[in-house]
Design a protein that fits this description.
Elements (H helix, E strand, L loop, with lengths): L22 H17 L21 E5 L2 E5 L2 E2 L3 E2 L2 E3 L8 E2 L1 H16 L5 E3 L22 E5 L4 H5 L4 H6 L6 E2 L4 E2 L8 H9 L4 E6 L1 H11 L9 E3 L6 E6 L21 H4 L4 H8 L18 H8 L4
Parallel strand pairs: 5-7, 11-12
Antiparallel strand pairs: 1-2, 3-6, 4-5, 8-13, 9-10, 11-13
Length: 311
């Protein structure tokens, strides 16, 4: 079946090519594809970071970087508060740097006071950060969080039960397979919620499904500077992913490069190019698979974090 192009899409030959995408974005796309294959290969070894269920009794610090690091002196997010409700708590991934806990409470309070509902907050980091055996490449040093686009009606009225927290389902705003918005699921509150987060100076990036960003770019028109931090990325059709910058004074936290792309530019167009659809549909020319890289060693401080007494 022929694909119907949306308004504003470029014709073949006019879109940025994957080979022309340079630097961090190209490397990140490649790493995501390789990591996905590794995560779901079933070969994950026992992970000591998943065996520790209490934060370390150390000063709070994010150590390393977002995809290779750990977290000392973590703080646990409360189950519920003004404007938020935790979900998927059975995964034991609701710890973070205190700076993230403070941000989430401030952000959720703003959401509630703007009559934008009650956020359902999902995965953050494990009790001492570190790598996951499945599900995430980042979220390792307490500065990443996943938040659902949808808001369950029960969570708006009362605290969720333990069973509900682990079993209610998020509603997707986009069809990942067909790479399109699901119009019936679109929530007009979403742009306002994302704008509140993006305009917070503590926020480094927010990852969303490309079709969601394209919709917001069309809605925003010239008032789009706040969309600069909102980055199109694989998945993210059920939740958006907020990443904070390194907190001031965290000397072992390695920052990510600031976003310098235009708010709604060519990097977004690529996600609707013929080249992207060839990758999505598995029709792109086959290339030689790169040799798997040895995992980078974790920062030396992480060994001490893992061995430290609990709080």
């Amino acid at each position: 079946m022929a694909r119907v192009r949306g308004a504003g899409e470029r014709k073949p030959g006019e879109t940025p090519k994957f080979n022309s995408i340079k630097g961090p974005m190209r490397n990140a796309i490649t790493a995501t594809l390789i990591t996905g294959a590794l995560l779901f290969s079933g070969n994950a070894a026992a992970n000591p970071w998943e065996e520790v269920h209490s934060p370390s009794s150390q000063a709070s610090a994010s150590i390393g970087n977002y995809t290779n690091g750990c977290l000392s002196g973590a703080e646990e997010m409360p189950l519920r508060g003004e404007g938020f409700q935790l979900v998927r708590t059975g995964r034991d991934r609701h710890y973070a740097n205190p700076a993230m806990i403070e941000f989430l409470k401030d952000f959720s309070r703003d959401v509630a006071r703007h009559d934008l509902g009650r956020l359902q907050i999902g995965d953050m980091s494990m009790a001492r950060g570190g790598p996951f055996s499945s599900g995430h490449k980042s979220h390792q040093m307490g500065l990443d969080v996943d938040i659902w686009y949808s808001q369950d009606w029960r969570a708006q009225k009362r605290p969720l039960t333990e069973w509900e927290r682990d079993n209610i389902s998020a509603i997707p705003l986009a069809d990942e397979r067909d790479h399109r918005l699901i119009e019936d699921n679109w929530d007009p509150k979403v742009p306002g919620i994302l704008r509140l987060a993006a305009e917070d100076e503590r926020v480094e990036r927010i990852f969303v499904h490309p079709t969601i960003k394209r919709r917001m770019c069309k809605m925003a028109g010239d008032d789009n500077e706040w969309l600069r931090k909102i980055r199109p990325w694989w998945g993210h059709n059920y939740h958006f992913h907020v990443r904070l910058a390194c907190p001031e004074g965290d000397k072992y936290c390695k920052p990510q490069r600031p976003v310098r792309n235009p708010p709604c530019g060519d990097d977004l167009d690529w996600w609707f190019s013929d080249e992207f659809y060839a990758l999505l549909n598995g029709t792109a020319p086959k290339s030689r698979k790169p040799e798997p890289k040895k995992p980078k060693p974790m920062p030396a401080q992480c060994k001490r974090v893992l061995a430290a007494p609990g709080q």
